[in-house]
Queue: 4 jobs
Job 1
Amino acid sequence: MKYHIAVKTHHKTGTNWMNNIFEGFADRVGVEYIHLSQVKDIQERKELLEQAAQGKEYKIFFHPYGRFPKVRIKNRMKFRGIHVVRDPRDMILSSAKYHQWSDEAWLHEPDEKFNGKTYQQALNELTTLDEQVLFEMNNSAAHHINMMHNFDAQNIFFNIKFEEMRQDTDLMLWHRILLRLGLEAADLAPAMELFVQNSIQFGKLKKTSHIQDTSVLPWVRKFPTTQFSVFDEKFGEITQALGYPATSVVMSEVKARETT
């Protein structure tokens, strides 16, 4: 390793996937792995990064929720990071399904916003995917999409698309990611192996509670067409800013293929 590595994900953007890979990698190569979201005090998170910048031992920092702490400008050159993004349409669909049954604590806390019901109870009262998608667009999914869009890269992070990693069966993309993160020759083999071991596209894993659909763009088949206009109004610009095509463009291509 030539730098400290930082890994930033968001809810439903491969959090467990990236955690398993990088935590395993840290164990293999003998570096400290710090799960920043488990450090409750924000100032302490910042101090951990600054202390690492002053030290000689490289570390890996993983942060799936909230904002990544600000690193002093003079220390940013000592870090390299990936920011995993995902097509907002797939994030919404994945959230709508996952939140119906997940045991994550926040889903089971009564909320005045839902007349004293929990998030999960309010979601499960909705009987159609159309309603569930709209619910997510107005609540949890909206929050995380906006967080993803407003992420401050600090000249440390570069964006990686969740979907592209899911298609990376020849490992060319993953190899480029590792090189950009500053891994040296001796580090590449365990990092490549861990990607294969933890990636569903290689047949090593089955569907899990956090991987519900193994197709590349499930939203094309599942997203309610009646909600396209609402989505485009709320997240159309964000979607394209993240590097994903507009809904109308994708659906036109799908229609063209179906008629040929």
Job 2
Amino acid sequence: QQLAERWGTNADCIAVDAGADALLLLFLRLFCQVGDAVVLTAGSYPTFPYFARGCGVSLFEYPYHPETLQHDLTALAAAAEQHQAKLVYVANPDNPTGSVYSFAEIAAFRARLPAETFLLLDEAYIDFYQDSEQGTILPITARVRTFSKAYALAGMRVAYVLAEPEVIAKADQIRIQFAVSHPAQLAALAALADPAWSRGLVAHSIALRDQLAQALQQLDYRVLPSATNFVCVVLPQVEQAQAIQRRLWQDGIAIHRP
């Protein structure tokens, strides 16, 4: 009910689960059977294809756009049609590139997909990208959100999804009803009750992100535009990326190398 008020929708359009990963797996189980086609961008959030392979689906992965390093929505839509995909997965904002498409662009992409193809939108970083349509429900689509980033509750494992009531009703039939603990629910309610705290956290994170991006650019690194709380640095050689990652790890700094 609190989330419904936050996004100007109805409670029957929302389900809550133990972290965004649990919801990604839930929708794979809900819509896909062994052998069904699933389309996604190669290199995007690696946990999703890990789950997909575990569900026995046929994965069709397509590269990022070669110039922008964004999801190639045209290629994904064509692939969904070609393979009669049961599900298309898009992280928006993306992990690991940090790129983002507006709601209008995503809605147009949804319209290009086959009517029987379900669109699974991973919006874990949506709080760092302000769009007036964040509460809008898209047809045949799930918009997965989390309390891990903008509310700093990663360890509590609380996430939610916005979708049409009939999709939520189906999800509730197989969702583990008591996966989200009582302390986690209380933490989420406290976070929702103090929106100024989250806004401050987001603003502080964005300021640090931009400061880091500027410092890296001054060192002549290619830094991609980011709509998240992290930056993605593109290096020309794999060996260079490995060497930097190893050197930072020796200094006690962990960075992700896709």
Job 3
Amino acid sequence: MFYDRVKIKCKAGNGGEGCVSFLREKFAPNGGPDGGDGGNGGNIVFKTSPNVTNLADFRYTCVFRAKNGEPGGKKNKTGKSAPDTVILVPVGTVIKNAETDKVVADLNEPNMEIVLLHGGVGGKGNTRYATPTRQAPRFSGKGGITQEYNLILELKTIADVGLIGYPNVGKSSLLATISNAKPKIANYHFTTLAPNVGVVKAYDTTFVMADIPGLIEGASEGAGLGHYFLRHIERTRLLVHVVDISGSEGRDPYLD
């Protein structure tokens, strides 16, 4: 099934805590503080992939939390920073804040990568707080705490040509004839419930064509499939309005 809008939760990793430690060795009983810094938390990274065509993978996996940084250690050992959590999305994905509906990222190019949420900075060990007047600090820095966000992912199909028109006028048949796509074709309304994309070869060039689900009068009020699919024509370079000249549906082709 084609998914073009999902809601997910994301949280970058917290920073690791700094270490409180003092050097205690046989010949250095008062060696001073030696607590290391904590590691940084992992980032949440979104990356477009040509192998991902829709948002179906997020149907069952909708919570993404990067790992926390490790705490610092004795002998000025810095904690290990957590790896980034990379989320693969299709080209044309728009990321919105679910609370404000504000667009925070528009991933409209292949192999585009963006760090959306930064991990917390690791806390400083007590070595960092030593001064000539405070030679034995018994405290360290806390790692940065990150916030969890609710995000909405919306897919806007990217194509050179978009086929639009009333339902059952032959858009899918046209796409199947001139491209490598194999859309579902049947003689009833709203056979196409999701955009079908195909590659058309013409002479020495190729271009991408998308069959957009049919829209009817009153779609903005919820008629037919509503205006839910209109987002898929926003990025097309050219719109081709397909008209059934035979009037098989009982409508006037000229009015269509």
Job 4
Amino acid sequence: PTAATHCRCRPRVGKETTLFRRILVPLDGSPQGEHALPLAAVIAEKSGATLHLVLVHEPDAYTEYGAASFEDFDEESKAKEVAYLNAVLERLTSATSITAEVHHLEGVIEETLAAEVTSREIDLVVMNAHGWGFTSRALLGSVSDYLMRNLEVPLLLMHAHDQSGEEGPSRPTSIKRVLVPLDGSELAASILGPAEQLGEVWDAEYRLVRVVPAPSSLFGMLGSDKGASDAALLEQPRQNAEQYLEKASAALRERNHTVSTQVLVHRQAAAGILQEAAESGCDAIAISTSGRGGLSRLLVGSVADKVVRGAERPVLVYRPGPG
């Protein structure tokens, strides 16, 4: 894809050590799409990172609605998009001291954003999970889903207004407590690095949790003694989970982070995670994903996907690459 790039730089403030070097924020021209911008700007300012604001123009040739006769309309759309990006840049840099760039790209939105993340060596993508662009299509919903399944860098997803204009959650500008769900697997534990990197921006606390299935769902089909109490059935799984969480939290504590652990008992892992995030006052959830898509996700289900869709707070999602 081709790109028109503009940069307006200001002196960096805050920490000398760069926590994130390059942060990308996809925009689509809508207020909903900008919901993630304040938090991304704070992260960039505190970590001394460059903020990359990206809008991808999808020409008529790439859409089911397009035709060659719409060339004039397409050029007009491009001009509006560039003007929009420049206005966002002006607004952002007049109110903050961050280094910011805007990039107007062209191509298939999902693939173009993924390529931009790779080519610019982006460390973090921050975006709203839903948004409606210049054509009033729900662009960012499908885009965030694609990026969650394909990127190998952390993706911080937020929720804002819906298309009806109803108010969504307020825009957070700090993350002081991060909930990190683990399940004992190497895949789940891969989120610990990105979670720590995000939390260090505010010297956040970390709450590591592991969900133990409720006895009825864990033992109901295994012919267990009906007279056994739930407490007895849960004793060993709970002990195993507690030992695992203590081991997982050791490295964070060694680096002087504040860490708490909690074993959750719930029939559904995603529901238990969301309930704990709300009750414990966590500002964000950090969770890894296998990146599984298509039929396998429909059949098996993805805890990360359910958490992202159900959360009322930012969710940091990470899909580790092979090896």
